[in-house]
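Ligand-bound model needed. FE2/S2 (inorganic) cluster.
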Amino acid sequence: MTLTEDAPARLTGFPLVDEDPEHHSFRVHRSSMVSPEIFEQERRRIFDRCWLYIGHESEVSKPGDFVRRSVGGRALFMVRAAKSGQVKVFHNSCTHRGAMICRQASGNSKTFPCFYHHWSFDSEGDLKGVPDRAGYGDNLDFSKLGLKSPKVQSYRGFVFVSYDPDIVDLVTYLAGAREYLDLVIDSADGEMEIVRGTNEYCMDANWKLLCENSIDGYHAVSVHDTYFKYLVALGTDLKGGVKGTARDLGNGHAVLEYSAPWGRPIAKWEPLFGEHAKEEILALRADLVAKHGEERASRMADTNRNMLIYPNLVVNDIMAVTVRTFMPLSPGRMDITAWEMAPRGELPQLRQRRLDSFLTFLGPAGFATPDDVEALESCQQGFNSGGVEWNDISRGMARTPEGNDEHQMRVFWRRWADQMGEAAYGRVEGR
Ligand code: FES
Ligand SMILES: [Fe+2]
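Prediction:
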């Protein structure tokens, strides 16, 4: 067999995702990680056909607030419209002759003038100003020249866009992931916000490696050894290890849920937070129990969740709540953006602790992220070495999957193969 070099246009050849339950084998062909043709097909079949996270409503809380984003390879910007109060998302392209309208990463503005010929739009996207209008005939309908939008829907503050006009509604798409978003949101009485400030970094690795890595329990002890030693040095008891399960949430979404020994600012105290914080955190916990009952409160406070919302949104509710999305730039490179989410109006000392946790483990220079970047870039370099055609993702196939198994990655890959359709087949040499 050979890697597929041209776009596979037919249902022949071998499946790139090769599942053989009888032999407890699940393999993924490495062309899926390196082939420019696969990458091109992913753009059309996945990124143009899913709900993709663009941002959180709290990032544009005041009329005229805007953020510029690249989503699924397309330039967009999200605005809090001044008249309607709605969160709008526009293609970042002037309806005159194409220039990008929004040229700043974020800000607040009443109008959005294009710098090229100065057509000017309001925050609802309507075209309001055209220099030297007399040059246009009376019959030209300027009302049709407003900014254009993809489909936009939000779920309790999480805003998604889709380029597929026929896509199912967002709640249907989220399937079982919805309950897990609820757990995060309800733990703050529905008042979650993105903390101002963004982590941005890139990696020389295929984007799907980060999908796998974000919900991979198997690598934690080997790759993040330094962090675990650091926690032990601070007095955290790690003897019980990390125990958990992985769940298929439908539509390619999956979660890894586990009780980890570290503290959680939402309501689980650990030595890392300091003695002085104990009382406050116990009070938060009592409040959660009063509102949600012991069982749900314990899930919110004690249980960690690494969730992948297919294809490229990660919500890690661990020692802090991280919202992370990543965009492929080429088969071997991606941009990653991460934000910290926190209860609105959180006490400053708790916010401080949360941000410390976020940066200490998940920040670009934290204990985890540089190690993960190294691991994923090393996989990509390994793929380029050739000689080995398949990745093995079989762990846990012969038992009820545990947290450190690979059930959650198989959930992702099945959906990937399903969406890729005939593009998820490789050519057999000689045909
Ligand atoms: S391209 Fe925007 S005004 Fe001409
Ligand atoms: Fe990791």
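The domain at 52-166 is CATH 2.102.10.10 (Rieske Iron-sulfur Protein).
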